[in-house]
# Entry
Amino acid sequence: MFHIISQPHVYHALRAEIDTASDRNQLTSPIVSDVEARKLPYLQACIKEGLRICPPGTGLFDKMAPAEGDSYRGQRIPGNTRIGMANWAMQRSQEIYGADANYFRPERWLESEGEQKQRMEKTQDLVFSAGRYTCVGRNIALIELNKSILEVFYKAEQEKLLERLTWWSR
# Structure
């Protein structure tokens, strides 16, 4: 949420999307549903970008190669070798996310398409690990992010919120 409120163009774009959905009676009250939140593309872009730029797990998500060994991209990996991935660095890959990978820019998720978008989504999803090591709370976390971020910006009085939080962007 820090990145949303500290960048006025992001805040206003998200607020406009929420206001439009509200005006079209696409948001229920008193509590918006996860299904409704998932239909808002800019909100989804903000959530993906937030998870990318500030991954919930920043450790070295390491795994052990099988006893018989393995290979990756032609490289032989000896058996029982610990292999890790630096999530923080992976989520800032310019090869995957572009030259501005170090910056919070939700629009990248709306502009990309095809193979590039699939590659970004697969890489971003690694913040929850993968395979049998996938975070068991992943789906609940995404529901909470969808509902809480939408509720905060849907219910907040815009002027008061900005007035209290503009010091972050100074």
In short: The chain is about 50% helix and 5% strand. The beta strands are 63-64, 70-72, 75-77, 82-83. The mean pLDDT is 88. The radius of gyration is 19 Å.
